[in-house]
Amino acid sequence: MTHKGSMKPVKKKKTEEPELEPLCCCEYIDRNGEKNHVAACLCDCQDLDEGCDRWITCKSLQPETCERIMDTVSDRLRIPWLRGAKKVNISIIPPLVLLPVFLHVASWHFLLGVVVLTSLPVLALWYYYLTHRRKEQTLFFLSLGLFSLGYMYYVFLQEVVPKGRVGPVQLAVLTCGLFLILLALHRAKKNPGYLSIPASSDTSLSSGQLECLNRKGQEKTKGFPGADTAGSLNNRTVKDDPKGSSRLLAGSPTKVKEDWCAKCQLVRPARAWHCRICGICVRRMDHHCVWINSCVGESNHQAFILALLIFLLTSVYGITLTLDTICRDRSVFTALFYCPGVYANYSSALSFTCVWYSVIVTAGMAYIFLIQLINISYNVTEREVQQALRQKTGRRLLCGLIVDTGQYNRGFLRNWHQFSTLGTRAIHHPAEDIV
């Protein structure tokens, strides 16, 4: 006989969760957490059906409906891939389609070329301000830049090289320049100097601690020459930081003054800034560049300048070779504005149109490069320049083209030496301590 007390408890078997079936190359998990198929991209979309009905009946669409339609389209725009279809950013597609179409249309006639090449920068600026106002990341400009490089090189190989005026050495130099641009862009796309977000328990400061530190900092800056003038550039307004930021000052006025980022919950060093688009603080942030879809900061500023320099040299060289081929016996500057008979042949017309497109892009990049050289010479970042212009501080020269805040300026040679040593944490710059 068995007693009840000696009976062993019966272990309940755990219910095994059903394993998810692996996705095929055309399947994916949509934003609602359901399995979907690439072939069903136009099926079961109530928002799209409602939008089409209202458009047919000449009724206005609500902004919320348009946003839902765009979210659905961007979620269903995928390409087959191993272990499930991959999502494609919709902002990549317009440059791939519109740029060749616009350039081919512009090569039909001189007047069409003027209209198209004038409208392209206007459309690009409009889209930039649209996305910048919404604080959204976009791959449109990165896609436009990379595709422009590839397409200009393709037209050069197809239309210019077969004419026999470009030698193998010249082609090799142009090709090497193109690869160097891509390498420099790859380096510039890396970490610009993001500040790592520590654990909240280690970095969270109470309001009383922040007020105490701020009070000590104000006491220490009293009587310190130039403290108010220099610090005015780094003051945060309520609009810039709605959650508020408290100013921290180390033990003495000669140490680096730092501030607290309420969004990243960390203390950031001098000249660091919170990027609203990337959503993280960047060390010595210069600006957010849409052409690389990343910030330009302490760790990638040199690569960014190098990429601009190589692009300008390569672009000017390619423009020179193309004009020398399609407009013989004329100087480059003369051929750019007067090249008779260039629209008689479609091949030369397309090449000439691409030359003017390259000139417009090169002129824009040359302006950015010039501003960067000026800022480096005065040891200011683009963010500091914009803030100085808003607050009407600093010294303005050449109608605001040059803005000298006087905060970190150590002289031309020392400023460039400091820029050449960016990213080396061991090197200390005492002039930046007086903030």
UniProtKB/TrEMBL annotation:
Its EC number is 2.3.1.225. InterPro entries: Palmitoyltrfase_DHHC, PFA4/ZDH16/20/ERF2-like. The chain crosses the membrane at residues 88-105, 111-130, 139-156, 168-185, 303-323, 343-370. Residues 219-249 are annotated as: Disordered. It catalyses: L-cysteinyl-[protein] + hexadecanoyl-CoA = S-hexadecanoyl-L-cysteinyl-[protein] + CoA. GO terms for molecular function: protein-cysteine S-palmitoyltransferase activity. GO terms for biological process: protein localization to plasma membrane; protein targeting to membrane. It comes from the Eukaryota. It is found in: Golgi apparatus, trans-Golgi network membrane. It is a multi-pass membrane protein. Its main location: Golgi. Keywords: Acyltransferase, Golgi apparatus, Lipoprotein, Membrane, Palmitate, Transferase, Transmembrane, Transmembrane helix. Residues 257-386 form the Palmitoyltransferase DHHC domain. GO terms for cellular component: endoplasmic reticulum; Golgi apparatus. The DHHC domain is required for palmitoyltransferase activity. Belongs to the DHHC palmitoyltransferase family. This is Palmitoyltransferase.
